[in-house]
Specification:
269 residues, TATA-Binding Protein, nine-stranded antiparallel beta sheet, two-stranded antiparallel sheet, 5 helices
């Protein structure tokens, strides 16, 4: 690794996202200009987004785009590495640069406070915290040098010389902070963000742009903690407490999955 996100000196973290899902605000356009003004000092890069949706019809799934797509507005830092997204059904903070959870979640809390000043009757129904790590093994190494080999569901069916299986494992764990989904994708070549995150507007992080050969065996760790609840009025302090719990569970999952070798290479603290 040549650059990192997070407190570890050589961390594999590529991307992080926190979402606060709310009940629908049908007139969100009436508020976005004022909210953009409040966010401008910290997030001066501002752009309108079309959020595509999958709509089930009688015969097929249709992707809605253009005028039929949901609208959203993104407010980014000058380096375009951290951004707040305002949607009719919630607020997202995502980043390709990350100091630590305290800094990241404090940014989220400040954004929520600004939004709730303009939209006082927001009701929360879901929160999510997601970390994407790119596992880029060194020479003569495999991802299993860095993560528990039990994550690799390879049955050894490759018969071609030099053939390598592309495998995915997924587990969902009930935890104190909600439900934790842990995905592990092992393949060859450059790691990529999961399909639902591919079209982000942020500048890439270090792990995203490191050179990787097509034959190199790599992996992605996708740790996603979700909390759902009946609609309750938005309170940034309570939200922050819940996100702290989700971060604790996500961190525990990550540390449980990795090896001592990974800790040494990534400069664990």
């Amino acid at each position: 690794m040549t650059s990192s996100l997070g407190a570890w000196s050589n961390a594999p973290l590529a991307y992080v996202l926190a979402e606060v899902r709310t009940e629908l605000v049908s007139n969100i356009r009436d508020y976005q200009a004022k909210i953009g003004g409040l966010l401008r000092e910290e997030y001066p890069l501002q752009r309108q987004m079309h959020v595509t949706r999958l709509v089930a019809t009688e015969n097929q799934l249709v992707v809605e785009t253009g005028n039929n797509a949901a609208m959203a507005w993104e407010f980014a830092t000058p380096d375009n590495r951290i951004a707040v997204i305002l949607r009719a059904n919630g607020i997202v903070l995502h980043a390709t640069t990350y100091t630590d959870s305290k800094n990241f979640l404090s940014r989220l809390q400040r954004a929520i406070d600004l939004v709730t000043k303009e939209i006082p009757s927001l009701y929360l129904n879901r929160m999510g915290l997601r970390y994407i790590d790119f596992i880029l093994p060194g020479k003569n190494e495999a991802p299993e040098n860095y993560v528990n080999s039990r994550l690799n569901p390879d049955l050894g069916l490759s018969t071609k010389a030099g053939g390598t299986a592309s495998t995915t494992s997924l587990a969902i764990y009930p935890v104190e902070s909600g439900n934790l989904t842990f995905r592990y994708i092992r393949s060859t070549g450059k790691p990529e963000l999961p399909p639902d995150l591919k079209n982000i507007n942020l500048n890439p992080s270090g792990p995203m742009i490191l050179p990787v050969s097509e034959s190199q065996i790599t992996a992605v760790l996708d740790t996603d903690c979700v909390f759902t609840c009946p609609p309750v009025k938005l309170d940034s302090n309570r939200i922050r407490e819940q996100f702290d719990l989700m971060h604790r569970d996500a961190s525990k999952a990550f540390k449980t999955a990795i090896t001592d070798h990974a800790r040494n290479v990534w400069g664990a603290k």
